[in-house]
Amino acid sequence: MESPVLPIEMYIWLLTHKGKRRAQELFDLVQSGEMDVYSVQKLIQKETIKGHI
Regarding predicted confidence, which is higher, 36 or 4? Predict the structure, then answer.
């Protein structure tokens, strides 16, 4: 089974909004299987909503 990978759009969003260290942390968590892509997506949605208020 191939390891999960964070979609490039999510990674770019994280780089832009969270910085390189945080983006890499989340990327590594997804790749190691500690966090799934869906969880990162929820986090991004929460941050995006919070950022627009």
Answer: 36
Within 10 A of 40 (CB to CB), how many other CB atoms are there?
Answer: 20
Residue 1 has pLDDT above 90, yes or no: no
Which residues, other chains included, contact 14 with Cβ-Cβ below 8 Å and sequence gap of 6+? 22, 23, 26, 27, 40, 44
Nearest Cα neighbor of 42 from 50, 33, 32, 53 is 50
pTM value?
A: 0.79
Cβ-Cβ contacts under 8 Å for 17 (sequence gap 6 or more): 47, 51
